Automatic annotation (TrEMBL):
Presence of keyword Disulfide bond: yes
Classification via PANTHER family: THIOL PEROXIDASE
NCBIfam families (UniProt xref): PRK00522.1
Keywords on record: Antioxidant, Disulfide bond, Oxidoreductase, Peroxidase, Redox-active center
Membrane-spanning residues: none
Top-level taxonomy: Bacteria, Bacillati, Actinomycetota, Actinomycetes, Kitasatosporales
Domain of life: Bacteria
Organism encoding this protein: Streptomyces lunalinharesii
The Redoxin domain, residue ranges: 1-123
Pfam families associated with the record: Redoxin (PF08534)
Alphabetized InterPro entries for the sequence: Redoxin (IPR013740), Thioredoxin-like_sf (IPR036249), TPX (IPR002065), Tpx_CS (IPR018219), Tpx_Peroxidase_subfamily (IPR050455)
Gene3D superfamilies on file: Glutaredoxin (3.40.30.10)
Protein's recorded name: Redoxin domain-containing protein
Length: 127
């Protein structure tokens, strides 16, 4: 699963990372890639915060935080780049579920950046 979002430093993004992280621990054969344009330092700080010490821990070895900061091509190729406005250059919020053969089985580009993804639809596709 790809959980794409603008920045771990916003409440909605942080909530979606927490939600998908908790779900990943309950599902076998599931890997969650949390992708934003944040620098790796921001991901490390977020994962070390008191409320989310589980990133990269043994509890969630199938959750990985990735930075698209040096790979803007990812944002363009997956259609998740914010093109204009004050957030231009960051990732839009999206949830993409791929099967074992890397075929997309669910995709949601959240229409309003402040809204959460449809967790239930993404989780149903994971199962």
């Amino acid at each position: 699963m790809l959980s794409v979002f603008p920045s771990v430093d916003t409440p909605t993004c942080a909530a979606s990372v927490r939600k998908f992280n908790s779900v990943a621990s309950e599902l076998a054969d599931t890997v969650v890639l949390c992708i934003s344009a944040d620098l790796p330092f921001a991901h490390a700080r977020f994962c070390g915060s008191a409320d989310l010490r589980i990133c990269g821990s043994a509890d969630l070895e199938n959750v990985h935080n990735l930075s698209a900061f040096r790979n803007r091509e990812f944002l363009a190729e997956y259609g998740v780049a914010i093109e204009d406005g004050p957030l231009a250059g960051l990732a839009a919020r999206a949830a993409i579920v791929l099967d074992a053969a890397d075929k997309v089985v669910h995709s949601q580009l959240v229409p309003e950046i402040s809204e959460k993804p449809e967790y239930d639809a993404a989780l149903a596709a994971l199962k």
